[in-house]
Design goal:
Layout lengths: L4 E5 L3 H12 L3 E5 L11 E4 L2 E4 L8 H9 L5 H4 L2 E3 L2 E6 L5 E5 L2 H11 L2 H26 L6 H19 L5 H8 L3 H8 L18 H7 L3 E3 L2 H15 L3 E3 L4 E7 L2 E7 L4 E3 L2 E5 L2 H5 L21 E9 L13 E4 L5 H9 L9 E5 L12 E9 L10 H17 L11 E4 L1 H7 L31 E4 L9 H20 L17
Parallel strand pairs: 1-2, 1-13, 2-9, 6-15, 13-19
Antiparallel strand pairs: 3-4, 5-8, 6-7, 10-11, 11-12, 14-17, 14-18, 15-16, 16-17
Helix pairs in contact: 1-10, 1-15, 2-15, 4-5, 5-6, 5-9, 7-8
């Protein structure tokens, strides 16, 4: 086989994992990236000399990275330092109640019994049994698979798997299903939050998203150097295998000739010839023609509903919460009394929520910190993905900021963003960083039980062009994007192994011809 030139557009998690796999196979791999560092949505912001993770903050599904790195002769332990978290997240409510969800389900069960009731603890135990069974049922046909078709998915489930989904009620929304699982509305609210991991509303997302709870219960880790440290570690592995990274290099156009990609044009004017191209960006950028009209047809032309965006604050400041009865862990969620209005505001009214749930990642925790010591904090509220319009005015942003930090103070965490201690990021800025997204951070919204079949797959109708990232199957999140990178690499290698004697017409998510 002659040397194959692969250009990967984007050094996000998907692109990094594709680069590792393909460079290890001996292909000539070049990664072009607009920014000055790997990671994509995984990035940091510098505040008063402190680097603060300001994208994804949760490391789960370690097995994805174990398999990736073991396949190229190394390991997670050899490339990064990780620590399992005993507390998955600490949750606060306006009534003054607080609940830790623990890595040990028995500890969580005991905590729920003391916090709510023994009956609710029993319901939690049953919930854990349900989500374990659900995850085991869907891991193969949905998470590990190339983009599933409806027929293939049903066939892979088999009678047993279909029985599991029938008992769950796949036509129910996540919110409806959780109403059958729990009586305590706070637990319903807590587990409904997992819909936002896919950038979706629990009122519109399918009940199958309950499996995300199992993903966390299987383990959450912190990474030394943050999630940015993980991205840097993966880039080092790819470079050792021979991949070349070119930062500050923006892809202006993907060129195709006679139905096949043949290279990429950089904004600098340079042209990089390629036998294969992997696009690690939002699929909407292809749909809107931002990479050239020739490659629009690589993705379905009907634009799906956008997922959530966010309004965030990267902060380096002391907290005085413990003096008022609030002690932060690493991952913290501050709920409102009502939950529905947040998603009605965002998805129905396309405006910032008046009553936002607030996520706070305290990146120097769970260690005890001296009183008055500044710590790295990342605060986030969900927002509509309309950063490409004019709906989010400066006044609206300021009002949301005021409501957000007033809510935290009411629950005992006294933070105040200032010019000196924080940097704010808006949906408009996310849209600028991720073109064509509107600021959506999770690709399309996972609304409706058929939504899993609507994400693009790793292969496209345009020969030689492959897709990876959170906007394609299997979906958003660091481990899912990593899996999409591996799927793209597998599909590319399979195309190299096939022969031109047996041409195969590509369809969305199907196998592309070489």
């Amino acid at each position: 086989m002659p040397e194959q030139r692969v250009v990967i557009v984007g050094a996000g998690m998907g692109g990094l994992c594709s680069a590792i796999t393909l460079a290890h196979q001996g292909l000539d791999v070049t990664v072009v990236e607009t920014s000055d560092a790997p990671g994509g949505k995984v990035h940091s912001r510098k505040v008063n000399g402190a680097h603060i993770d300001s994208g994804p903050t949760v490391f789960t599904m370690r097995w994805v990275f174990d398999a990736l790195l073991e396949a190229v002769g190394t390991s997670v332990e050899a490339e990064m330092r990780i620590t399992p978290l005993q507390v998955l997240a600490r949750h606060f409510w306006p009534d003054g109640s607080q609940l830790d969800l623990s890595a040990d389900a028995r500890e969580s069960e005991a905590a729920i019994a003391a916090w709510s009731s023994g009956e609710e603890a029993r319901r939690f135990k049953e919930f854990c049994k349900t989500i374990r069974q659900l995850y085991a049922t869907l891991e193969g046909p949905m998470i590990r698979a190339q983009r599933p078709s409806m027929g293939g998915f049903v066939g892979d489930l088999g009678f047993k798997g279909l029985g599991v989904l029938a008992q769950l009620g796949p036509m129910r929304s996540l919110w409806q299903q959780l109403g059958q699982q729990f009586s305590d509305p706070r637990l319903r609210q807590l587990f409904a939050r997992y819909a936002t991991y896919c950038g979706s509303s629990p009122w519109q997302s399918p009940a199958t998203l309950m499996l995300i709870a199992q993903v966390e219960m299987d383990g959450v880790w912190s990474v030394e150097g943050g999630m940015v440290g993980m991205a840097q570690a993966l880039a080092r592995v790819a470079r050792r295998r021979g991949a070349v990274f070119r930062y500050h290099s923006t892809c202006q156009r993907i060129e195709q000739r006679q139905g096949r990609v043949c290279g990429v044009h950089l904004q600098s004017g340079e042209y990089l010839p390629a036998d294969r191209v992997i696009f690690n960006g939002d699929a909407a950028a292809l749909r809107q023609g931002l990479l050239g009209d020739d490659v629009r047809r690589a993705v379905p032309q009907e634009a799906p509903p956008r997922s959530l965006s966010a309004l965030t604050w990267s902060m380096y400041t002391p907290t005085n919460g413990s003096a008022q009865g609030v002690t932060l862990d690493r991952h913290n969620v501050f709920f409102q009394r009502t939950y529905a209005s947040e998603f009605e505001d965002i998805f129905d009214r396309q405006r910032l929520p008046e009553n936002p749930t607030v996520y706070v990642c305290a990146q120097d925790r769970p260690a005890d910190l001296p009183a008055g010591q500044a710590e790295r904090l990342f605060c986030l509220v969900n927002a509509p993905a309309n950063g490409d319009g004019n709906a989010l005015t400066e006044e609206a942003l300021e009002q949301c900021q005021t409501r957000t930090f007033h809510h935290l103070r009411q629950l005992g965490l006294n933070l105040q963003p200032t010019v000196g201690n924080s940097l704010r990021t808006t949906p408009q800025e996310f849209h600028k960083r991720f073109p064509a997204s509107g600021g959506a951070l999770y690709g399309q919204a996972t609304h409706g039980w058929t939504s899993i079949f609507k994400r693009p797959g790793s292969t496209t109708p345009l020969q030689g062009l492959y897709l990876t990232g959170g906007s394609v199957h299997p979906g958003p999140g660091v481990p899912m994007a990593a899996l999409s990178g591996q799927r793209a690499a597998e599909a590319l290698m399979a195309s190299l192994a096939s022969t031109s004697r047996f041409p195969m017409g590509a369809t969305f998510g199907g196998i592309s011809t070489p």
